[in-house]
Amino acid sequence: MRAFQKRPSPPPAPPQPASPTPGSPPSASRRAAVRVRGWSRAVVRALDAAFTPPAQTGAAPFAGSPSRWVRLLPYGFGVALVASLLPVTVNLLITDYDVPGALAGALATAQTAPLLLAATRPLHAWWVVFPADIAGALVLLASDGPRAQLWPWTPPVVVGYCALMLALGLREPRRTLIGVWLATGAAGYLLETVRPYGDTGVSTLLFVLSGVLLLLTSAVRARSEAQRRLAEQETISEAERARRTLLEERARIARELHDVVAHHMSVITVQADSAPYRIPELPEAAREEFASIAGSARESLAEMRRLLAVLRSDGGEGERAPQPGLDRLQQLVEATVRAGVPAELALAAELAGGRTEVPQAVGLSAYRIVQEALANVVRHAPGAPTRVSVREDGAGRLTVLVVNGPATEPVSPLEGSGTGHGLVGMRERVRLTGGTLDTGPLPDGGFRVAALLPLGPADAGTGTGTGTKAGTGTGTGTKAGTGTKADAGTSTDAGTGTGTDPH
């Protein structure tokens, strides 16, 4: 008998690395590998984008509530949901679907435990719950339990998934919500194609419920964001309005002071031009010096006129009348009396007679402060007895005091609207002269405005006075406002008056 001996096969040759010739097209395997790498990168980028929540990480619903119990409410709801769904799911899978206990516990944990993340990271929870629900449907495909016809989604799955949709709708953008909704419907209807039982409509039920919940919660979220943006815009508008009011008041004060400064510059020009004629013995060098002074004064006047044109942004020509001073206080008080306010003026004799020299800027500031204070009395404390006192305190300062009693007439609610320029103007004028301002309510229900203005040269903004104002006049209205000196001086208004005075 001839024996057959198997001839050993030669060892295979080691694979030679492909060495494509330059300029030749890549092989099919290399092209396939490049495509696989590109698809892998695309999948990784898609997963990374999906796991990146658009809202701030860790920001649960009601996170901005001042109540600690309200902030903990989403977490408590998630714990209660998982604690109730987990045992119900395990029991349902074992008794109604005849799933082994270990497998039922694993499926129930995967389908319910991620709901603990729904408060802060609902999209992360969905990426775990959704595949777990699909895996559970595939496990139940071979079930022959008494209620196996409820497929592919069991009742606990529907409840947990709807709760997850609530959390998703409150956090994620519309594009993500549409993708989640379409994926839910597609998975349900695709699973129904391999189901051996009749149509139960569970997939349609979950698809409709999830769409409705996502729509409602996204609408609530959109409304909340719109309210937040509106509140932010109102805050910005209020700040801009206050800033615009301050700038307008400063521009108005600058326009008024133009006449004061222009008067002094005109006097300098006239004196410098007339000096050679009034003093014939002046040497030639002095004549040239006076001519230079006059030329500089005229140039300064021209620059001031240009500055005033810039400040008059409304294109108006401004007032032609001279700026008022202490000599106009009597007329101002008389006009207030005609408006129905019993007011009286106490003006020091040395100021009324002109024996005490008052700078024009200080006199103008004192007049405007009294004017604004009396206007507030007329508006917010009609009929209140008012006393105006202007005197020198003996330390080179002008004291301006306006005190009114409680209102004797009712105040119309319409009087609560105002431009807010009154107190702003007072603070700016006091800051301009380097003085202090003190405003506040009186125990009897009246109100007091007191200003100290230096009569000598002062560095504007060096005042350090602090005043607190609780309203204008008396009554039930409220008043609020703040002011800050250029260095450490502040004047704060925050209190009550007869009406709401936004000045």
Descriptors:
single chain; 503 residues; alpha/beta; five-stranded mixed sheet; 8 strands; elongated; disordered C terminus
Concise account of the structure shown:
By secondary structure, the protein is α/β, with parallel strands linked by helices. It contains twelve helices and eight strands.
Outline the structure in words.
- It is a single chain.
- This protein has helices at residues 28-50, 68-95, 101-112, 122-139, 155-171, 174-192, 202-278, 284-311, 329-338, 349-352, 360-380, 421-433; strands at 343-347, 386-392, 397-404, 436-441, 447-454, 466-469, 477-484, 490-497.
- It is built from twelve helices and eight strands.
- By secondary structure, the protein is α/β, with parallel strands linked by helices.
- Strand 7 and strand 8 form a beta hairpin.
- The protein is elongated and about 125 Å long.
- The strands form two sheets. It has a five-stranded mixed β-sheet with strand order 1-2-3-5-4. Strands 6-8-7 form a three-stranded mixed β-sheet, with helices on one face.
- Helix content is 54%, strand content 11%.
- The protein starts with 27 loop residues before the first helix and ends in a 6-residue tail after the last strand.
